[in-house]
Design a protein that fits this description.
With 141 residues, this protein is mainly alpha-helical. The protein is 74% helix and 0% strand.
């Protein structure tokens, strides 16, 4: 069974901090985003131990939630990801006629990545990045 690498998830989580420093995100937003991520980690680890989802999903949601913070974008990300995963899981279960579907965890990354990209475009972090690019005259001919 393929698993989501701990190094990948840790890198994704830690990449937020240099990004936030470079684009000028206030420390209060960095702190609140980190707290939301830690709370979600606790919730998702509990769900993992109860057997409702895989450990890779718990880690990946935590790593991506630090980028979105306590916003409606995070809610969109969680709802879209949960919906895609639920439908994918049911679809695979129907196809395999109730066989073991160990590879369902492979669907978490594309689902989460798509939902994250969708939510990030309207998020506060995207606004800071856009302002940084414009203020520093990056990508102008």
């Amino acid at each position: 069974m393929k698993q989501i690498s701990n190094w990948f998830v840790l890198s994704l989580f830690l990449a937020f901090y240099p990004f936030a420093a470079v684009v000028g995100v206030p420390i209060s937003i960095i702190f609140s985003n980190t707290m939301v991520s830690l709370v979600l980690l606790i919730v998702f680890v509990f769900l993992f131990y109860r057997g409702y989802l895989g450990g890779g999903a718990a880690k990946l949601v935590c790593a991506l939630s630090v980028w979105l913070g306590p916003t409606f974008d995070l809610v969109i990300f969680l709802v879209v990801t949960a919906t895609i995963l639920s439908v994918s899981y049911l679809f695979i279960r129907i196809i395999r006629k109730h066989q073991s579907s160990g590879y369902i965890q492979l669907l978490i990354f594309p689902s989460a990545a798509g939902a994250f990209a969708f939510a990030f475009i309207g998020s506060e972090m995207y606004t800071y990045a856009e302002k940084f690019v414009v203020d520093n005259s990056l990508f102008q001919l």
